[in-house]
Structure formats: C-alpha cells, structure tokens
C-alpha cells in the first residue's frame, strides 16, 4: 500500500489562561507561535498553534485556552502524555530550565532504552521530553528562546491510556497501517508505516484499573494523524467507515483538511492533510504575529477582537 499515515500531524489540548499558555510554550519551551486564530466552532476562544519554524506536521501542539475552564482529569480514553524529542545530551539543560520556571520535573526513567523527563504545563497537562538520536535538529525552531543545540525537535510520540488495548491496537495496525515495534510492561509501542522516526510513534498504555479521563484544562482534546493530500484522506475515510467507525465529513480547518472519529477506547482521532500549511494567510517570516480568521469569520473581526482576552 503506497498510501500511509506517516505519523502525528498535531495534538490539540485545552488550557485555561491564554496568556499563561502562550508564555509557557513560547518563552519556556521555545516553540514558535505559528498561528494565532480562533476556535472555528467557538470564535470567542483563541486557537493557538505552536510548532517549529514553519509549523510542519509532527511539530504542532495546539490549544483552545478557555479562561474559565476547570481542570480536567488525565485518564483512560485520552492522550495521557505528549512527548517531544530533544537531542541526546539535553535533559540536564531541560531539567534546570523547567525547574527554574516552576514546571516541576520528575525523572521518569527510561522507556525502550531512552531517558524520559516528565513535567506538567501550568494547567497540569502531562508532557515529556525524550532524549533520542531520532531528534532531528532541522525540525527545531531556532529563532526561539532555547539554545539551538537543545531545542525541541517536534514530537517523539504520544501515549494513549486505555482500559483495554486490543481494539485500539487492531485499529492502528489493521486499518491505519502502524506496526508494533515493542512491548515494555503494559506499554505497547507502534510506529507509523513510514517510521520509526520522531513523531511516528504511538504507545498504547493498557491500564484496566485506571480511572477514565475527564475533559478540561490540562487534557488533550484530540490527536491528528498525517495524510498526504485530500485524495488519500477520502480513501482513509472509506477504510475507516468500512471498519465500522463513525467518521465525520471533511472539514476545512484552513491550514489542513480534517476528518474525525473516536477510536474504540474513546480517544478522539483526526486525520489531517499535510497541505496547505500555515503560510497561506501570513508570510513565513511573520507567522503568528496577528490574529488570523477564516473568510467566513472575517466580517465579524471587530466583534471577535473585542471578545477575545488581551494577550499583551
Ligand atoms: Zn485537530
């Protein structure tokens, strides 16, 4: 099959205070704000996209910051950890940097032979850094606040917490073309057919006695997987529907096109196209500098700007 899911496209999570969220991901983690727009389904809320220089698929973490959101509970049926790749000698640098910024770190040992540093963002979102030879410095944003040799190089992986793992495993392996590449305790590791490379990995963590997650600030809303173009996306849609999943129609998200479905364990999955990317309504040098709106919301710009909380 030449058509492949090549890895994580983006991960979208819920935050509370937009200013605090913006500060943490740009000033502390050193990611680039590549797009500042609104939640198209709730235009009184921001939608921030953080990523590398051009926001390439596999680097993008996005947030809906709802100022009054109550904190959720991380648990089964969710992406329970979002993991970035950093260069192999970088964990000491990051431990100091995160501790100095109040993001209490803890050493999470090794996973499949690679050291893991775990921490939380200001809303309690579970993040990890993995020091790995898979980290590709050309995938980092070098215009940020982090020394170039330590900068985050996009996603390494994501961990899905599940009450049971078989149905989810069958979906990713039999329908989405992932391959199992390892098992460690109750953690089952899969890589996209194009992998393993940073961002191609998903771990299914089988936790039958774990509590179910509850959506709120500090939890992941959905994870999106990469597809090459609109034609392949429609073919994936057919495959997923044939496998009995309820898949949405294609939605125009301006910077990619999306379909959504819930995997059997409850995690909301999306398949998103690589094109067109973020340089469609701003030039590459000026990504994220202004509030961008889709054409259908542009007539309401004044009202939207009035409602959105100030960021400066
Ligand atoms: Zn999405």
Compile the SSE list and pairings.
Blueprint: E1 8-15, H1 18-28, E2 32-39, E3 42-51, E4 60-65, E5 78-86, H2 91-100, E6 106-111, E7 114-120, E8 126-131, E9 155-162, H3 166-175, E10 179-184, E11 187-191, E12 201-206, E13 220-227, H4 230-242, E14 251-252, E15 257-262, E16 268-273, H5 301-307
Parallel strand pairs: 1-4, 5-8, 9-12, 13-16
Antiparallel strand pairs: 1-13, 2-3, 3-4, 5-9, 6-7, 7-8, 10-11, 11-12, 14-15, 15-16
Zinc ion is lined by residues 10, 12, 222, 224, 258, 270.
Can you give keywords for this protein?
alpha+beta; binds zinc ion; 8-stranded mixed β-sheet; globular; 5 helices; 2,3-Dihydroxybiphenyl 1,2-Dioxygenase, domain 1; 312 residues
CATH H-level superfamily title: 2,3-Dihydroxybiphenyl 1,2-Dioxygenase, domain 1
The Cα radius of gyration reads 18 Å
Low-confidence region ranges: none
What is the helical fraction, as a range of percent? 10-25%
Total domain count: 1
